Amino acid sequence: MLFRGAHLQGIKSGEITMAFRKWQKVSVKSGSLLHTSVGLLEIGKIEAVNENDITDKDAVQAGFVDKKQLLKSFNHNSTGTIFKISVRYHAEDPRIKLREQTGLSEQQFEDLKDRLERLDRYSKQGYWTQKVLLTIKNNPNLHAIGVAELTGFEKEWLKLNIRKLKNLGLTISHNIGYEISPLGSEYLSKLFNIQSLSKGQPTKKRRFKL
User: Fold this and answer.
1) Which backbone phi and psi does 96 adopt, to 5 degrees?
2) May I ask the CATH class of domain 5-92?
3) What is the DSSP letter of 25?
4) Cβ(190)–Cβ(107) under 8 Å?
5) Which residues have a Cβ under 8 Å from the Cβ of 79 and sit 6 or more positions away?
6) Greatest CA separation found in the chain?
7) Range 95-199 classified under CATH 1.10.10.10
8) How far apart are CA 194 and CA 181, in angstroms?
9) pLDDT in single tens digits along all 210 residues of the chain
10) Which residues contact 160 (CB under 8 A, 6 or more apart)?
11) Which one of 69, 86, 116, 203 has the lowest number of neighbouring Cβ atoms within 10 Å?
């Protein structure tokens, strides 16, 4: 469920308390939390309504000038039911604090490494996380198409999976492109430091009894 930037600010300030969507099927659940650029939004009551039941007051509470402007916001080619959705600001996005970390304990590093390895292991694309993280680190603010071209992954698949990295605090999404987060940089630095040390260790000589 997407919101315009101005509507997000209105929800955060408390001026906007509801939203209207025209859907074939409800795509959110009452009580669920949405990650947005202004923080977490909480979805409240969801109810189907008729177009005739919507008032100008409803439209204003949803961030529109009047009912006419609200109805124009629906895709004219869309079919489905109009839903009235209660929405409120819940809290700051916890991923922001997470991604700003510049220090990782050994346990935190191992936990993060395990989670990324699971993403790799259960992906049909194979081991992709390190490749994508390095591409974003070396090409800051590059858009999804550019990252897709450099990594060889399909764009829509890539966007969906970069979101998983973002949820772990490793990347930052901008209006155009992505950036590695301080936590992501710390993780990669620690990872490659360990790999470098591992490669540089001399092979132990075996002793055989005569």
Assistant:
1) -65, -45
2) mainly beta
3) S
4) no
5) 24
6) 96
7) yes
8) 20
9) 889 989 999 999 999 999 999 999 998 999 999 988 788 999 999 999 999 999 999 999 999 999 999 999 987 767 889 999 999 999 887 777 888 888 889 999 999 999 999 999 999 999 999 999 999 999 999 999 999 999 999 999 999 999 999 989 999 988 889 999 999 999 999 998 876 655 655 544 434 343
10) none
11) 203
Amino acid identity at 208: F
**pTM over the 0.85 mark:** no
Q: What are the residue ranges spanned by the domains of the chain?
A: 5-92, 95-199
DSSP string, 34-103: EEETTEEEEEEEEEEE-GGG--HHHHHHTT-SSHHHHHHTS-TT--SEEEEEEEEEEE--HHHHHHT---
- DSSP-based three-state secondary structure for 22: strand
3-state SS, 118-177, equals HHHHCCCCCCCHHHHHHHHHHCCCECHHHHHHHHCCCHHHHHHHHHHHHHCCCEEECCCC
152's tokens = 């060889």
